[in-house]
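Students often ask why we bother encoding 3D structure as a string. The short answer is that it lets us treat folding as translation between two languages. Here is a chain of 77 residues written in the first language.
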Amino acid sequence: MEIKKKVAGYITAGFGVVAGLAWNDAIRTFIEKYFPQNGSTIVAKFVYALFITLVLVIVSVYLVRLLNVSGKGAERE
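And here it is in the second language, the structure alphabet:
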């Protein structure tokens, strides 16, 4: 059963990478459209980096809290 959980986790992580790459492409296209290649390109890249960092921090905090809650429930059993 432990192997099935690990395989499911790896598959989910793989889908997460694919989704991340799709979002990366979508956001890059958005930046290219609304921030054409000129002096503001570096500003757009910093905005993109800050946006991605913010999203990752929010998701990470949520996952840590979720795992702590589910971990406490597993200890009681």
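Translate back mentally: The chain has two helices and no strands. Keep this in mind for the problem set.
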